[in-house]
Design goal:
The protein is 38% helix and 24% strand. The chain is an alpha/beta fold. It has a domain of 68 residues. The strands form 2 sheets. It has a 6-stranded mixed sheet with strand order 6-7-8-3-9-10, with helices on both faces. The two termini are 32 Å apart. The structure holds adenosine-5'-diphosphate and magnesium ion. Magnesium ion binds next to helix 1. Magnesium ion (MG) binds next to helix 1.
Length: 252
């Protein structure tokens, strides 16, 4: 499933001794690598800093210290124009899905294409139609965000985050607050993205079932830094006390 040459390229995302926070660090000494075609879950208790780190990894907020490398470049050392060019290769779907409430689903999804490309409107409509089909809400194009379910809005947000065919998609808790059946549909959408578009996906998640269904690898944060990295099975069987508690408190 991963491209055959994925290990010869530099990591798509790399943190070298990164600290993030608000004045004071929330996470520090973060070292991690995410490679092309991987689906990686970021795990950890509420408030440990996952969303804060995701903002730095997705080019939105500079770290307090350290080097965030995106596509092999030290992102926050680049000039604004270069940063913008790289941002177009990233898709971000945040915890608050932030669809514009006054626009139909298809107009929401079309927005990045209308703002950032000069493609003719007939082509944009067709691209949006195909992407909505891919995420499984092709029949809801003309609805307003208020008139679809929470899970459908998550999928619409994924459609918009991915409409420019980004090389990497960041999703913050895409299944939070959804019932298990709907959550499984959203998970399935993420896996489909990788199959259809070859996307690399970085997903913050709490739900073990979701992580098992989607992620190749997880990075777990606690006590202000990275406490474990590995496949889900490796983490489930970890001897580390914090990691053990995280999984076994949830699996009962
Ligand atoms: N805008 C902000 N200003 C100050 N502190 C913040 C802000 N956003 C989050 N925090 C704090 O930073 C810590 C990490 O938050 P966050 O990254 O949202 O955690 P997580 O996503 O893992 O639940 C928490 O203690 C939170 O209260
Ligand atoms: Mg969060």
């Amino acid at each position: 499933m991963k491209p055959a040459n994925s290990n010869r390229r530099p990591p798509l995302i790399q943190c070298v001794d990164v600290a993030v926070g608000y004045g004071k660090p929330v996470l520090q000494h973060v070292n991690l690598e995410i490679r092309h075609g991987e689906i990686v879950a970021l795990l950890g208790g509420s408030g440990c800093g996952k969303s804060t780190l995701l903002r730095s990894l997705s080019g939105l907020t500079p770290p307090i210290a350290g080097d965030v490398r995106l596509f092999g470049e030290s992102f926050y050392d680049l000039d604004p124009e270069q940063q913008n060019a790289l941002r177009h290769r990233l898709g971000v779907a945040f915890q608050q899905e932030a669809l514009f409430s006054s626009m139909t689903i298809e107009d929401n999804v079309a927005l990045p294409l209308r703002e950032l490309t000069r493609l003719p409107s007939a082509l944009i409509r067709e691209m949006v139609r195909m992407r909505l089909e891919l995420v499984g809400i092709g029949n809801l194009a003309r609805r307003m965000p208020a008139n679809i379910s929470g899970g459908q809005r998550k999928r619409a947000a994924l459609a918009r985050a991915s409409i420019l065919d980004p090389e990497v998609i960041f999703c913050d808790e895409p299944t939070a607050g959804l019932d298990p059946v709907v959550a499984a549909e959203v998970d399935d959408t993420l896996v489909r993205f990788r199959e259809a578009l070859g996307s690399t996906i970085v997903v913050v998640s709490h739900e073990l079932e979701s992580i098992r269904a989607t992620a190749d690898r997880a990075i777990m944060f606690a006590k202000g830094s990275v406490v474990a990295t590995g496949t889900i099975d490796e983490l489930v069987h970890s001897g580390d006390e914090t990691v053990h508690q995280f999984f076994h408190a949830r699996t009962g």
